[in-house]
Specification:
303 residues, 6-stranded parallel β-sheet, 12 strands, binds beta-D-fucofuranose, SBP_2_dom, carbohydrate binding, signal
């Protein structure tokens, strides 16, 4: 075999491509939709998919990638749970001539030869959009509490950064508390309960995903306040349950993050295995939703 793809063992004897996919977990509605998209797209593309769920633990993902290397799959795709600590295992894949595609989340490594391409959203941009809506729709001082995604994960780091960049132009908007809720509904609920006890007069919740925002809604209601009215809620993702809460007036604004990456991933995989050039970065197109736009979009929503 030669290099990443293109060798005579680059696909099975019958031409079938085998992909090892190391998923983050099943922490959110976004993740469930993403997994379904990957599995369905593999089937439609005739790609033999080996799938693993790391339960949000990097060590499990590393184990899965190692086992794909041992099994000599044709291509490895994965969504790195955190940004750092991948060089060793990706070097093992490289030495075995197995190309790697990053999907959904990026890694932080100097060595860009460790992967062929990165397919996913611009999370800084998502943070920018969340903050821009707050700037455009509020006047006067705003106390914001932030529910961060998984510590060390690209979407948590970048959604925080993007939000902070834009609110910097409004000194009366202040993040008064910020903690991780690990992208889960129960995490969002617990952290919000603590915020409600420790922080008086919260004006705004900025949650890095819908699930944590939905957990926060439960905590706000239990504290006798009205979500979406007494406290403004901004989230990211736009999964079904989030869009329903938005249409019902409990969330105020959602920045979309598209989980339906399966088809593009399979196309990239075929090209990479065939030794064709692929762009180093493929960015997902996405929008935003107000309450009115959520009502209009919901009937046709796939996930
Ligand atoms: O926003 C969140 C999920 O990596 C973009 O992970 C993904 C994020 C998504 O758990 O809901």
């Amino acid at each position: 075999a030669c290099g990443a793809g293109g060798g005579d063992d680059a696909a099975g004897d019958d031409g079938t491509i085998t992909m090892g996919f190391a998923q983050v977990g099943a922490e959110s509605g976004w993740r469930t939709a993403n997994t379904k998209s990957v599995q369905e797209a593999a089937k439609a593309a005739g790609i033999d998919l080996k799938f693993s769920d790391a339960q949000q633990k990097q060590e499990n993902q590393i184990k899965a990638i190692r086992s794909y290397v041992q099994q000599k799959v044709d291509v490895i795709a994965f969504s790195p749970v955190v940004e750092t600590g991948w060089d060793t295992v990706l070097l093992e894949a490289k030495r075995a001539n197995i190309p790697v595609i990053l999907t959904d989340r990026a890694i932080d490594s100097e060595d860009t030869s460790l992967y062929e391409t990165f397919l996913g959203s611009d999370f800084v941009e998502e943070g920018n959009k969340a903050a821009q809506w707050l700037l455009d729709n509020t006047t006067g001082a705003q106390k914001v509490v932030e529910l961060q995604g998984t510590t060390g994960a690209a979407p948590a780091i970048d959604r925080k950064k993007g939000f902070e960049e834009v609110i910097a132009s409004r000194p009366d908007i202040e993040i008064v508390a910020s903690q991780t809720g690990d992208f889960t509904r129960s995490g969002g609920k617990q952290v919000m309960e603590a915020f409600l006890r420790s922080t008086p007069d919260i004006d705004v919740v900025y949650a890095h995903n819908d699930d944590m925002g939905l957990g926060a809604i439960e905590a706000i209601r239990a504290a006798g306040k009205v979500p979406g009215k007494d406290i403004t809620i901004i989230t990211v993702d736009a999964v079904k349950a989030g869009m329903e809460a938005l249409a019902a007036g409990e969330i105020n604004f959602i920045v979309e993050c598209n989980p339906l990456l399966g088809e593009q991933l399979m196309d990239l995989a075929k090209k990479v295995v065939a030794g064709e050039e692929v762009p180093a970065r493929v960015v997902t197109e996405e929008g935003t939703f107000t309450q009115e736009q959520a009502k209009a979009a919901l009937p046709d929503r796939q996930y």
